[in-house]
Design brief:
Layout (H helix, E strand, L loop, with lengths): L11 H21 L11 H24 L2 H22 L6 H16 L1
Helix pairs in contact: 3-4
């Protein structure tokens, strides 16, 4: 998985699939336990676009690790969050609540530490 030969793991797609299935299972379990609400249904076309963007995002970030040092990869992940918020605030005139901003800051701090 890396340009230096990796750790002998050659099933990156399988690992991503396991990640997605585990995430889906945790969401279903949280909903069953009453810890999360069921999300509204998205139209099929919007779901397809959302999924495609997610796959391209994860794939491109993983490919980035082949040509960039891990430090640059972490900084890129860290900067995506405020960039997307800035784009939404400027282009979509979206305003974020204090709770949302606090959650974003917490995630950024966590990513920054790792």
């Amino acid at each position: 998985m890396s340009s230096q030969g990796g750790h002998g793991f050659s099933f990156a797609v399988t690992l991503s699939a396991i990640h997605f299935l585990t995430s889906a299972g945790c969401i279903v379990a949280a909903q069953a336990a009453g810890l999360a609400e069921q999300a509204k249904r998205m139209p099929w076309k919007a779901t397809l676009w959302f999924s495609l963007v997610g796959v391209v995002s994860i794939g491109s970030l993983n490919l980035s690790l082949l040509v960039n040092p891990v430090g640059l990869y972490q900084v890129a992940k860290l900067l995506v969050i405020p960039f997307v918020c800035g784009v939404e605030a400027v282009w979509m005139r979206r305003r974020f609540s204090n709770g949302t901003l606090l959650a974003i800051a917490t995630v950024m701090a966590g990513v920054g530490v790792v």
